[in-house]
């Protein structure tokens, strides 16, 4: 069987997975706080081919030794190694709702090991009491007066407690302090990760730290600056024009691999039905 079948098949699978990732980005272009995924492609190791037949070659001292002629290297295909969220700041859009909040990043320290910037997130509590992270500040008040996310998770303050309010007539200062009736009620919790690529995505814009790791309080970090904007939401950082272009490029690459696969199929058909025919 033609070894090229495997090479072409890996290319089609890789482009299909990339298209699925880009489609997911495009479908979340209007999701507040959504961070677009990026992919990295990697080639499988090349395979060195040699002829099965042996040839004799004389050495300088008159001895002969067998030698397998080298045919050459064969590329064994590519695969999509991983997907990585792109944690750049999205545009901030005003909504006018007092329960909406957006994180506006200022200076983000660089991680010396990875060379990437850190990232900040609102801190939530899910059903089992564990922490979750999000950039979606589309909050609301539940029936008991607790500030919750759009998924129904409790929004936590910097001490890890739920935020309880009497009504939606409150203000959020730029330093994250919630003020109601002239009194400071709580400070909205903001967590900082110096390696956001290690966070695990759970869907609906939620992330969690690996192995239950507790992230650091962003308010206590040096060389880190940010503000909380009330009545606004951070938009998705998906570049719709570039995403559409990448989708078309990926589709064309898939189509090209498909043409090659069809050519191999025709060659195999001719080999079996004509060359291999016994008269």
Protein model, in words:
With 279 residues, this protein is α+β, with helices and mostly antiparallel strands. It has two domains: 4-83 and 239-275, no CATH class; 87-234, no CATH class. The chain has helices at residues 4-27, 240-275; strands spanning 37-43, 47-50, 55-58, 64-67, 70-74, 78-85, 92-94, 101-105, 119-125, 131-134, 140-141, 147-148, 154-155, 171-172, 177-180, 183-187, 190-193, 200-203, 206-208, 216-217, 226-230, 232-234. The strands form nine sheets. Strands 9, 10, 13, 17 and 20 form a five-stranded antiparallel β-sheet that branches. The chain is elongated. Pfam families: Flg_bb_rod (PF00460), Flg_bbr_C (PF06429), LlgE_F_G_D1 (PF22692). One of its GO terms (biological process) is bacterial-type flagellum-dependent swarming motility. Belongs to the flagella basal body rod proteins family.
């Amino acid at each position: 069987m033609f070894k090229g079948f495997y090479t072409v098949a890996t290319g089609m699978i890789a482009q299909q997975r990339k298209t699925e990732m880009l489609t997911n980005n495009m479908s979340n272009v209007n999701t507040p706080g959504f961070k677009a995924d990026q992919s990295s492609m990697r080639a499988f190791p090349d395979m060195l081919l040699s002829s099965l037949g042996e040839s004799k070659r004389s050495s300088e001292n008159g001895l002969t030794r067998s030698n397998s002629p080298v045919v050459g290297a064969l590329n064994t295909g590519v695969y999509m190694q991983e997907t990585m969220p792109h944690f750049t700041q999205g545009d901030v859009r005003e909504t006018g709702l007092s329960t909406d909040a957006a994180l506006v990043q200022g200076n983000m320290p660089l991680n010396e090991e990875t060379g990437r910037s850190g990232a900040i997130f609102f801190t939530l509590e899910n059903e089992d009491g564990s922490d979750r992270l999000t950039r979606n500040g589309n909050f609301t008040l539940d029936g008991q007066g607790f500030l919750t996310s759009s998924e129904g998770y409790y929004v936590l303050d910097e001490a890890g407690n739920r935020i309880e309010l009497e009504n939606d007539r409150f203000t959020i200062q730029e330093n994250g302090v919630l003020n109601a009736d002239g009194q400071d009620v709580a400070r909205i919790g903001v967590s900082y990760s110096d390696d956001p690529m290690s966070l695990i995505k759970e869907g609906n814009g939620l992330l969690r730290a690996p192995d239950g790791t507790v992230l650091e309080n962003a308010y206590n970090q040096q060389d880190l600056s940010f503000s909380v904007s009330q009545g606004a939401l951070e938009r998705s950082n998906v570049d719709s024009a570039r995403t559409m272009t990448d989708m078309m490029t990926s589709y064309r690459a898939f189509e090209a691999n498909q043409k090659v696969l069809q050519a191999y199929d025709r060659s195999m058909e001719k080999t079996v039905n004509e060359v291999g025919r016994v008269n």
